[in-house]
Amino acid sequence: MTDRLTGERLVDDMTPAERARAERVESVLPALRAAAAKADEEARFPVEHVALLRDAGLLGLVVPEEHGGLGGTLRDLAAATFAMGTACPSTALAYFFHNTSASRGLLPLEAIEAGLFDEGEIPVVRAFAEKVLTRMASGTWLANFASESVKSSSANITIATTARRTEGGWILDGEKSFGCATGVADHYLTTAKLDGYETAEGLATFFVPRDAAGVSVRAPWDGLGMRATANNGIRLDGVFIPDDEAMTIPGAFTRMLQMSRGSFVGNQLAIAAVYTGCAQNVYDVVIEQLTRRTFADTGRPIASSPMHQVLIGEMTKDLETAYLWLRRQLLLETSEPPLRPKPEVFRQWRLGKGAVTEACFQVALGAFKASGTSGAMMGGVIGRALRDLAMGLVMTFPAERGRLEVAQLVTEARQNELFATAERSS
């Protein structure tokens, strides 16, 4: 029987082509695992992983073959980030954000096919989209910078970075507070709002070279989460970007988002796969430890005690809960033909993201309780997993916000059903 790949623990019905791509991921896992503890201790992204993933062809995993990539889909990306999450969650997270850049190429091309751009816009949109994809396929690491420290009550992500017109291009000013691979990526794919716009219609995307004049790194990020992601963020002070390195057609960003199957730009569930991989690893480690170690007086495995049996049962339930939500979302976002309309898929994700990340954190918490003081080490697998998985509770949005939004969607729909018009009686 063929050995089971790590990614098949999540995507257990891989096609031969998907399995071939997953074998490339499997080949890099030993190196990722070997570097994980030191990278976490030093809070430093292992820059050698860029060449490792590039040489394996994985920087173009979800880029279509006609643009030089491997032709993978969201199923491939979820399997890859899950597998990497079992080895080095920090690298898995940074790799996820690199791959989110592909949406800036794939979705605009789909929007062109759907007739959302006019003849005058199509050449500009196509050129930028293809540039994103061909650069990824050629081994360019892209950091996707959207999030900022500025918050608003009505949106999960608020863009305050501005782009103003100048001769031959644009001037960018602002600060990006969150974005993996700071100082590592070749280009920062940066979202900014065009000068004079205050709505999403003015959102634009720019290739910002890592070493461009006016680009600086924010203070080191010493966060409660994945510490080796180079997640410092950047400052942009009068950074010039030429026209051919920008997508600045008003409304292009919102039109491209219409093509996603569910979650934002259509690949957000792959970040939940990172957390699930991390949870699977800490589960495996603590089960191995508890079954191998024995009580001094009875010789029985520690795992056989009633307390540990309860904890193991809870951990197993939580891990399976994460798998169920994640696999359901993956099915909804990749099935052909679609199983559910987009609003339902979106609603499911608003629930699913929180359900997965909370369940994964509970796995690490159970592992911590089950291992006792011997597992309470900052550099150990359990201690790292607790910190790594804590980030999932707040990244993008916490579970409470997702549930609130879903409740509002459900109740507002029901309210509408309660009202009807009737013909006037004669």
UniProtKB/TrEMBL annotation:
<dbReference type="GO" id="GO:0003995">
    <property type="term" value="F:acyl-CoA dehydrogenase activity"/>
</dbReference>
<dbReference type="Pfam" id="PF08028">
    <property type="entry name" value="Acyl-CoA_dh_2"/>
</dbReference>
<dbReference type="Pfam" id="PF02770">
    <property type="entry name" value="Acyl-CoA_dh_M"/>
</dbReference>
<dbReference type="GO" id="GO:0004497">
    <property type="term" value="F:monooxygenase activity"/>
</dbReference>
<keyword id="KW-0285">Flavoprotein</keyword>
<dbReference type="InterPro" id="IPR013107">
    <property type="entry name" value="Acyl-CoA_DH_C"/>
</dbReference>
<feature type="domain" description="Acyl-CoA dehydrogenase C-terminal">
    <location>
        <begin position="269"/>
        <end position="390"/>
    </location>
</feature>
<dbReference type="InterPro" id="IPR006091">
    <property type="entry name" value="Acyl-CoA_Oxase/DH_mid-dom"/>
</dbReference>
<keyword id="KW-0547">Nucleotide-binding</keyword>
<feature type="domain" description="Acyl-CoA oxidase/dehydrogenase middle">
    <location>
        <begin position="147"/>
        <end position="239"/>
    </location>
</feature>
<protein>
    <recommendedName>
        <fullName>Dibenzothiophene monooxygenase</fullName>
        <ecNumber>1.14.14.21</ecNumber>
    </recommendedName>
</protein>
<dbReference type="GO" id="GO:0005737">
    <property type="term" value="C:cytoplasm"/>
</dbReference>
<dbReference type="InterPro" id="IPR046373">
    <property type="entry name" value="Acyl-CoA_Oxase/DH_mid-dom_sf"/>
</dbReference>
<keyword id="KW-0560">Oxidoreductase</keyword>
<dbReference type="InterPro" id="IPR013786">
    <property type="entry name" value="AcylCoA_DH/ox_N"/>
</dbReference>
<dbReference type="InterPro" id="IPR009100">
    <property type="entry name" value="AcylCoA_DH/oxidase_NM_dom_sf"/>
</dbReference>
<comment type="similarity">
    <text>Belongs to the DszC flavin monooxygenase family.</text>
</comment>
<keyword id="KW-0503">Monooxygenase</keyword>
<comment type="pathway">
    <text>Sulfur metabolism; dibenzothiophene degradation.</text>
</comment>
<dbReference type="Pfam" id="PF02771">
    <property type="entry name" value="Acyl-CoA_dh_N"/>
</dbReference>
<feature type="domain" description="Acyl-CoA dehydrogenase/oxidase N-terminal">
    <location>
        <begin position="32"/>
        <end position="103"/>
    </location>
</feature>
<dbReference type="GO" id="GO:0050660">
    <property type="term" value="F:flavin adenine dinucleotide binding"/>
</dbReference>
<keyword id="KW-0288">FMN</keyword>
<dbReference type="InterPro" id="IPR037069">
    <property type="entry name" value="AcylCoA_DH/ox_N_sf"/>
</dbReference>
<dbReference type="InterPro" id="IPR036250">
    <property type="entry name" value="AcylCo_DH-like_C"/>
</dbReference>
